[in-house]
Specification:
The structure holds two protein chains of two kinds. Chain A is about 40% helix and about 20% strand. By secondary structure, chain A is α/β, with parallel strands linked by helices. Chain A has a seven-stranded mixed sheet with strand order 3-2-4-5-7-6-12, sandwiched between helices. In chain A, β10, α9 and β11 (about 250-255) form a beta-alpha-beta unit. The model of chain A has no long low-confidence stretch (mean pLDDT about 95). By secondary structure, chain B is an alpha/beta fold. Chain B has a single domain (about 5-325), classed as Thiamin diphosphate (ThDP)-binding fold, Pyr/PP domains (Rossmann fold, 3-Layer(aba) Sandwich), CATH 3.40.50.970. In chain B, about 40% of the residues lie in helices and about 10% in strands. Chain B contains ten helices and seven strands. In chain B, β6, α7 and β7 form a beta-alpha-beta unit. Chain B is globular and about 50 Å long. Chain B starts with 14 loop residues before the first helix and ends in a 17-residue tail after the last helix. The mean pLDDT of chain B is about 95. Classes of the chains: A alpha/beta, B alpha/beta. The interface of A and B includes residues 94 and 132 of A.
């Protein structure tokens, strides 16, 4: 199906578009821009705020020109006050709006942790369900070019730890558009995490507005030998690894988690039941991370489906270094996944 | 206050309003006093931060607000809710952890809500409610509503970055907000002078191009006038105001006791402020000016007592939440 198909790069998509009539392509950044523009156009309660949302670059192109189309009152550039502005978005949500708050980097979100975890996450529960906080907080993971320790973190596990928040990490343009709309209309605070290396990815994106359900993973590639559950950018590394392994007679099943909280364990259980082997590839740190959670749940509820110990492909327990040599050693990719799969199969 | 009633331009204040001011202050005082009385029974199993001594501020500000105006408060929020119109029963039941509580037993005394009266939930993180209040004001402007948002916080919250971030934004966007800083001089047990160099909270408004005023927070008419001014400025699009109302809390930071016994502050200081009781001086004024008679004042007190009795009965007789409530309402719509 065109909306679950992942294209390795733009050229691959264009080749497919050439032979598939009506296959409309957008990049990940364009998909986000289109989703936001459609919501701004159709719903007066939706507005965008954040540092630099109206600048000429438009948050890597994802909000570009929106202030001209919808006015600076609905596409609001804000002071550098992450915590305060997050609280303002939450308060506006309580008063009937559906704000989309944009942080240029995930790394700026710790500044707003009080409002996110003590306020947004708690408000529905703490007041017995009488109010809700329909706020979407978009933020971006950087990577490479010496971004270093404060501009490249992957903090999804931090947010996924907190009851009351939802956490999504779309990997494809189709999901970026559909999940953004689903987040805005979810009714709960949703942390929407994008990866900078995905912005140029192209895929099939229908023009009309649609939602992709929060809490549903998708199988991107089928295979009987090993399950690779991946999030965000790591979905592509997993697919590259899977296609390399295929040449060696190993068929992997690649699951794109899409939503981290709530986690779609059904899809993972089903796959592990079939393959008996599980690798979790995440953009974040290994310790206390997404991989730890997924594997713990499999160990708790599907332990006897495993034929081999599960494995994690994730970041080492260190801040991000700047030097390209160290950066290269820091980030895991296709090679690490292949290595993990082979190690696991040898145990057989 | 004494003989200086005229300095407030009392001609603009009706007898009815004076009675309302008194009734509201008394209601808050008696409500909080009842908590003090009941707390040792240990049936109210949550921390309580009492408002005794500060009643004139909630009463004076909220008499300028309409039902649809928003109010954001904090851990010491009982008085604000009552003054904004919240019924006593659901508040009291919340303190008892009951299903009928305003937050259905999930919030406790620090987390009360009354959506119908514009109270969208109180934060117990110092300063935490301030940005939320500014956000509600932003929403009301975007929706073209004419509501004003009043945000109550203490001198402790003035230490927090959240205040500056939110105040700056409110002033930048000329939002209809009244920032009410209840300066009771203590953040838990730390005196203002140990935390702030100038101790001139209202002066900082100027740096943000907003209106600031410092008033006697124990003088309900002064509070009423200052907030009337601030609310009308907000309503006509003149932006936010910062009212610093100096006052004093009689009880410790938390709980029903007076904390001087534990060395938290000098007893003489508490005695001095008790002399300046906002209720007593106002009552004397009402009597002296023949606004009301002792008998009328007495009737108000007994009617409040009856309401409190009913609220306590309601709270005590209400059921606790069922255990399966534990995992409900973590997310909406799911």
């Amino acid at each position: 199906m065109p909306w679950t198909k992942v294209y390795g790069d733009k050229a691959e998509f264009e080749k497919m578009a050439g032979v598939t009539p009506g296959l409309r392509g957008l990049t990940y950044r364009e998909a986000l821009l289109e989703a936001t523009a459609q919501m701004l156009a159709s719903d007066q309660t939706v507005f965008v705020l954040g540092e630099g949302v109206d600048d000429s670059a438009g948050v890597f192109g994802t909000t570009k020109g929106l202030h001209e189309r919808f006015g600076k009152d609905r596409v609001i550039d804000t002071p550098l006050a992450e915590n305060g502005v997050t609280g303002i978005a939450i308060g506006a949500a309580l008063a009937g709006m559906r704000p989309i708050l944009v942080h240029m980097r995930v790394d700026f979100m710790p500044l707003s942790m009080d409002q996110i975890m003590n306020h947004a996450a708690k408000w529905h529960y703490m007041f017995g369900g009488k109010v809700s906080v329909p706020v979407t907080i978009r933020s971006i993971i950087g990577r490479g070019w010496g971004s270093a320790a404060q501009h490249s973190q992957s903090l999804q596990a931090l947010f996924a730890h907190i009851p009351g928040l939802k956490v999504v990490m779309p990997a494809t343009p189709y999901d970026a558009k559909g999940l953004l709309r689903a987040s805005v209309y979810d009714g709960n605070p949703v942390i929407f995490i994008e990866h900078r290396w995905l912005y140029e990815h192209m895929g099939h994106v229908p023009e009309e507005a649609y939602t992709v359900p929060i809490g549903k993973a998708v199988v991107r590639r089928k295979g009987p030998d090993v399950t690779i559950a991946a999030a965000s950018y790591m979905v592509y590394e997993a697919l590259r690894a899977a296609s390399a392994l295929s040449g060696q007679g190993i068929e992997s099943e690649v699951i794109d988690l899409r939503t981290l909280k709530p986690l779609d364990m059904e899809t993972i259980f089903e796959s592990v039941k079939k393959t008996g082997r599980l690798i979790v590839a995440d953009t974040g740190w290994k310790e206390f991370g997404i991989g730890a959670e997924v594997i713990a749940r499999v160990a708790e509820d599907a332990f006897y489906d495993l034929k081999a110990p599960a494995a994690r492909v994730a970041l080492p327990d260190a801040p991000t270094p700047a030097s390209p040599v160290l950066e290269n050693a820091f980030y895991p990719g296709k090679g690490h996944i292949i290595e993990a799969v082979k190690k696991m199969l040898v145990r057989k | 206050m004494k003989d200086e009633l005229l300095k407030y331009g009392v001609d603009t204040i009706t007898r009815e309003l004076l009675v309302e001011m008194y009734s509201m202050m008394l209601k808050i005082r008696m409500f909080e006093d009842r908590i003090v009385e009941l707390y040792p029974e240990q049936e109210m199993k949550c921390p309580v931060h009492l408002y005794i001594g500060q009643e004139a501020i909630a009463a004076g500000v909220c008499l300028n607000l309409k039902k649809e105006d928003y109010l954001f408060s904090n851990h010491r929020g009982h008085g604000h809710c009552l003054a904004k119109g919240s019924p006593m029963g659901p508040l009291m039941a919340e303190f008892y952890g009951k299903k009928t509580g305003c937050s259905r037993g999930k919030g406790g005394s620090m987390h009360v809500i009354d959506v119908e009266n514009g109270i969208m939930g109180t934060s117990a993180i110092v300063g935490g409610g301030i940005p939320m209040g500014v956000g509600a004001a932003l929403a009301s402007v975007m929706k073209g509503a004419e509501s004003v948002t009043a945000i109550f916080f203490g001198d402790g919250a003035y230490d927090e970055g959240a205040f500056y971030e939110a105040f700056n934004f409110a002033s930048l966007k000329k939002l209809p907000v009244v920032f009410v800083c209840e300066n009771n001089f203590y953040a838990t047990n730390s005196h203002q002078s140990a935390r702030q160099p100038g101790c001139r909270i209202s002066d900082s408004a100027a740096a943000f191009d907003a209106h600031g005023v410092c008033i006697d927070g124990n003088d309900v008419i002064e509070v009423y006038k200052a907030s009337q001014d601030a609310v009308s400025r907000a309503r006509r699009g003149g932006g936010p105001s910062l009212i610093e109302a100096k006052t004093y809390r009689w009880k410790g930071h938390v709980g029903p006791e007076e904390d001087f016994e534990r060395g938290c502050r000098p007893k003489e200081e508490l005695d001095y402020w008790k002399e300046m009781c906002p209720l007593r001086s106002f009552k004397e004024l009402l009597l002296k000016r023949n606004v009301m008679t002792e008998a009328e004042l007495g009737r108000i007190a007994s009617s409040i007592k009856k309401d409190i009795d009913a609220a306590v009965r309601f709270a005590k007789e209400s059921p606790y939440p069922e255990q399966d409530e534990l995992l409900k309402d973590i997310y909406c719509g799911g």
